[in-house]
């Protein structure tokens, strides 16, 4: 009886540990993890280079300016823009997402990266080149049309202190990396 109780206790502890450790929630690994394949026309196009030259790659850097700090102060924040949750929520991928996990490779200075649209990539990063459908089951997101616009509007909206009219179709052309 003692052995059975001990066995059950060990089994429950192991089950709890593995459920916690392998919960299925992906970690953000950063855009540099996408670079090897998505910079090479033969392997995955030029998506990384398009992102790197675009405004999203510079999103965190804009928070490190005197102008951004001035805006944060005017909005009543006591911290610099680059340390203010309200600013980070739109200027860094996944930063204020409830329950988000970040791999040690993740670098917030990358700003708004690949995973902002395609989901935290730790589980699907190596798989998606050969099996897109399998990667989708592991968390790869490929937002299209209205879903993509809705995603963009979570930050590009009137709540932003520097909001300018957002034309989804026009802006999408600036970041298009489908080639």
Find the count of extended strands (DSSP E, 2+ residues). Answer: 2
Share in helix = 40-55%
Mean pLDDT: 84
Q: With helices defined by DSSP (H or I, 4 residues minimum), what is the helix count?
A: 10
N-to-C span: 66 Å
Helix/sheet category: mainly alpha
Strand content: under 5%
Main sheet: which strands, in order across? 1-2
Shape: globular
Helix-strand topology string: HEHHHHHEHHHH
Rg (C-alpha, Å):
20 Å
Q: Report the biggest beta sheet as strand number plus sense, adding barrel if it closes.
A: 2 strands, parallel
Number of domains: 1
> Which parts are unreliable, with pLDDT below 50 for 5 consecutive residues or more?
1-23
Task: Give a written overview of the molecule.
- 44% of the residues lie in helices and 2% in strands.
- By secondary structure, the chain is mostly helical.
- The protein has one domain.
- A two-stranded parallel ribbon has the order 1-2.
- The longest helix has 20 residues, at 2-21.
- The N and C termini lie far apart (66 Å).
